[in-house]
Every structure is written in structure tokens, then in C-alpha cells.
Amino acid sequence: MAMTRESWAFVFGLIGNVISFAVFLSPIPTFYQIYKKKTSEGFQSLPYVVALFSAMLWIYYALVKKDAALLLITINTFGIVVETAYLAIFLFYAPKKARFSTIKLLLLLNVFGFGAMLLATMYLSKGAKRLAIIGWICLVFNISVFAAPLFIMRKVIKTRSVEYMPFTLSFFLTINAVMWFFYGLLLKDYYIALPNTLGFLFGIIQMVLYLMYRNATPLPLQEPVKAQELNAHNIDVLKIDAHPGSALPKL
Length: 251
What we know:
The protein is mostly helical. The protein is built from 10 helices and no strands.
């Protein structure tokens, strides 16, 4: 018996969930290091705040959409739990200045920003128009997030080193983007499908850069940057790609 379009979409979405699940857990070594050192100094909270905001957006989109939204809800619910745990650990071990800036960022983006968007879409729109507005917000936000890997690619070209861009990470993020692209395409949900075309493109570029520079002699950076900081940035921005619309994301 031939599988329907919806059945294939479920298969792609399920594989996307599995890969995204692993990507969400990829920063664990970073936070274990923070726990051992008893400080988060030298690490950035921005990727985790952005990943949490992305998961919140997709949960809201899925709840409004209702149809064929289960796989969006499962992975992004997990994402919210994990990112919240990461941020709690970060805040607990953060220096006073970093803690204050992280709390301020959370309030601006995840509380007031998301709250304003929630109220505006709930009371100023309804039905298909509300879903379209939320979908466009998700799409634009995730496309803007996809610009983040350009930072890592620039570092690779500038230093001729792939230390901060593991091939395995790039490979699985590319596969993840493909899974969510076909999930969105088969459901004719272009708010999910379109951003992942960028995820696929950047994933391919990263793998090409890896092959180009894997045996190159590294050049020193003029301004030293901690490997952990770059890895954390790479992992979590790409992890927003782990979300259906994004993703980065990152291992």
C-alpha cells in the first residue's frame, strides 16, 4: 500500500525530531565544564536565549495551526525544557554582570517581546490571518538566525582552521534541515520549508569549507577567542535549525 503525503511528512518529521533531540543535548559538555569550573565566565548566553525564543515561537505556531502539529509540539516542548535548564545553570554560575545582562535579555525578548507578539496576534487577528502572521514571524526570525553561521564560516576562512566547525555537526545539521524541509513541503507549510533551504545551503557550504581547510596550517587570531565560546555559539545558533523552521539549532 502506497504511503500518503501526510505519512511521508510524519516520517520526515519524526527523523527531524530524533536529530533535533540529539542537537538540543549537544551543549551538555559545555555546561558540565561550567559546573566543574563553577563559573560561566567566557561563555555567552545569547544562543540559549535565542533558542528558547525560537522554541516558544514554534510552540505557539503549532498550537494555533492545530492540524499536523504534534511533531512541532513534541520537539519544541523538549527544547523549551532543555534551554530553560541551560539558562538556569548559566545564571547560577554567571558573574554578576553576565547574570544581569542575561536576565535583561530574557525579559526583553522572551517575556516582553514574546508577550507583545502574543497579545497582538490574539486580539488584532484571528483564524487564517493569525496563523499567517505567526508563520511569517517564525519564518523571518529563523531566516535572520541562519545568518549566524556566517560568523563561524568567517572564522574558518580567516584562521584556516576547522576547530570550531566539526564536520559531524555540519553533516547532521544539514540532514536535519533536509528532514524539516520535506516535512514542511509535504504538508505545504512553507513557513517551515523555506527557512530550511537556507539551513541546507549553509550546511553544504560548511562541509565544503571543512574539506578545504581540514589539512591547512592554521593562522593565529589577532584577538584570541575561547574555543568553548565559539563552539557554544556555533552549537546553539545552528541548533535553532534543530527546530523545524530554523536551527541551528550545533554539536
